[in-house]
Design goal:
Distance between the termini: 36 Å
Shape: globular
Number of helices: 5
Largest sheet: 5 strands, mixed
Structural class: alpha+beta
Order of helices and strands: HEHHEEHEHE
Helix content: 40-55%
Radius of gyration: 15 Å
Number of strands: 5
Strand order of the largest sheet: 2-3-1-4-5
Length: 154
């Protein structure tokens, strides 16, 4: 539906990069209050929101990025050989672009984002994704509509 790669393709990419020992950044993005959007405006509007977020991600990400829907209203972007600062700035560009995008309903759309790096934030992909997930939940806990990098103090 979104035109992004699926989880299987994401896993294949990670396996390849892990086998080569390639460093990479993980950007984990979650649509804020998505259930309320679906409940208020319907699943058709929810589908349009998922497509909008996917389009913004693809537009803002570099050509070599791997953009995937991770599940429900969660998305992931993998960036090969990027610094935390570069990944954070790209995540912020995506967050701001989504914030100003016209929505198919009367409200403003926001996302919360967590960013982590391999191998800095974990020796394996599970740990790196866990670090991005923890940063994402910190972003939500700090009020949503923000990007948080793993390993940085509040």
């Amino acid at each position: 539906m979104t035109g992004l790669s699926n989880r299987r393709e994401l896993e294949r990419c990670l396996e390849s990069w892990d086998a080569l020992g390639e460093p990479y950044a993980v950007i984990l993005l979650d649509i804020d209050h998505f259930k309320a959007i679906n409940d208020t405006y319907g699943h058709q509007t929810g589908d349009q929101i998922l497509k909008l977020v996917a389009a913004v991600m693809v537009h803002c990400a570099p050509a070599d990025a791997v953009c995937s829907r991770f599940g429900g209203e969660e998305f992931v972007i993998l960036l090969r050989e990027r610094s935390l600062d570069t990944a954070y700035r790209m995540a912020e560009r995506i967050r701001r672009a989504i914030l100003v995008s016209p929505t198919p309903y009367s409200g403003t759309l926001t996302v919360s984002i967590g960013v982590s790096l391999y191998p800095e934030h974990g020796g394996n992909r599970e740990d790196v994704f866990q670090a991005a997930d923890m940063a994402l939940y910190r972003a939500k806990g700090e009020g949503r509509n923000r990007t948080v990098a793993a390993g940085l103090s509040a």
